[in-house]
Specification:
6 helices; 6-stranded mixed sheet; alpha/beta; 8 strands; two-stranded antiparallel ribbon
Length: 188
Amino acid sequence: MNNDQAGTHPAGHSGSAVVIAFIAVVVLVGAYFALGMPGMNHGSGASMPGMKMEQPGSNAASLLAPAAFASAMAHQGAVLINVHVPYDGEIAGTDLFVPFDHIDPTLLPADHNTPLLIYCRTGHMSSTAASTLSGLGYTDVGELHGGMEAWRQAGREILHVPSHATTLEAGVASDRRQRTLPVVLVAG
């Protein structure tokens, strides 16, 4: 009885089909991972206060609860930055007012190891700013988890300084070291 009569195929033919199918599966799985696993939610933002959050392709930014943020503010050399636009209040001691979506590196410290503490009203704008700052190479970025709303809920004060709103609209912000710094503004 030959192979055709027995219902079997020569080993070379069936083995080739299996190898080709295996290679196709490997290529498809490789493409799936190379494209960043399309269809999956990579930016869920799920975290616990004080957790380090890895930003894709950048350094880590720390989400800090209000008490930890206040402690970090006491660090010598830390720069406190309000990234909320338009002006909606501030935390006492704020050094810079920089729009979250138009961060000009020339306004920031040249030393990328300088602690930068950023906040906005609820945390959404500061999250974008944290990613940008980390992407620019800043290694010590702390973000107020929940923004000024969480700060206020923790019993801390939010200041409303009309001259800062006017200064921000004019494109200039002053810092606590008595320097005047330009601020990038976007109409809209």
